[in-house]
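Sync notes, pocket subgroup
Present: LS, DG
LS reminded everyone that the earlier model was apo-only. Rerun requested with zinc ion included. Inputs:
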Amino acid sequence: MGEGHEAFLMRALELARRGWGWTRPNPLVGAVVVRDGVVVGEGYHAVCGGPHAEAVALLEAGERARGADLYLTLEPCVDFPGKKTSPCTDAILRAGIRRVIVATRDPNPWVDGRGLARLREAGVEVVEGVLADEARKLNEAFFHWIRARTPFVVLKLALSLDGKIATRTGRSRWITGPESRRAVHVLRTRYGGILVGVGTVLADDPSLTVRGVEGPQPLRVVLDSGGRIPLGAKVLSPGARTVVATTDRMPPQVEAELRKRGAEVWRLPGEGGRVDLRALLQRLGEETDSLLVEGGSEIAGSFLSQGLVHKVAFFYAPLILGGRAAVSAVGGDGVDEPAQGIPVRDLAIERVGDDLLVTGYPAPGCACPTELD
Ligand code: AOF
Ligand code: ZN
């Protein structure tokens, strides 16, 4: 596996990232056509329903693709029911590509190895697994959703260094700095939905839209089992779709008022008077591949204790709030022994302005990305 492979695949990954937010629920894919060590075609999947990365790169390469190498961040697709574009494996064979270097297989059960098998049968040399971890991580939401059909759930919290998400008076604006707050808007464009509990709506009245950065507006979801959401809440403002996820406990007149304001109301099965989160995720999986859970503390506790969080993104501010009455990041009942805590794998730390962003993958219920192999 020569060094050259990695450099061209790095380029393909870079191209793939340009589709951030717009390809959902399709994956981010990049393609590079190389002939005699020179790039003769590049492409990426820019938007769901649009041409695939391979099609774009092969079109640019034209006749120069004959006998060339093709670098792909994901296995090329084959035909399946309901598919929007023509299969890339056919296009690759038609173009006369000699060798395909691919980072990962496509976990889509309709593809899953068939694309590579088809190429091999037709005599194309296939090299698999170059920069596989990077490529899987890039598409971690897709890798989860395409199999589970429930969204990849990311829990984002803004905390003080001592793990509080609000002061003793309940105030949370602002704990983290402007760079982190901007990073949150970027995060919002990367996931298909954002969820908060009605407690957060009552306390902070967030609009949950993307502002100040380029990208699509995610679906806004408010968990409100009893129908306490104020009708003047900013989350009901136009600019993005809003779903209020509730139970039979919401009075019909509240539902009617919410609908009048353009919100969708989902009455879901309840558990102890609260929305059954698994039922919510099943329903959300019909709409989108990923969900950013933004709190508050009880919501964080419910998702975590039920093993429903795939990834955490905690922004820590260099600030100590203190106070036994100040809200700690994760509510719920907690555990008795440290050994019963939820281990978080693959911890990564980066600086965002004066804050620290810690990301990682809580162990229970996590199907990706590393458990896929
Ligand atoms: C590729 N290259 O650029 C993408 C792929 O409905 P379609 O035709 O867009 O197909 C969607 C499926 O194709 C998607 O679920 C995934 O398996 C694959 N996406 N494959 O070879 C691409 N976007
Ligand atoms: Zn394709």
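DG: The two ends are 20 Å apart (CA to CA).
LS: The first strand starts at residue 30 and ends at 35.
Action: DG to write up.
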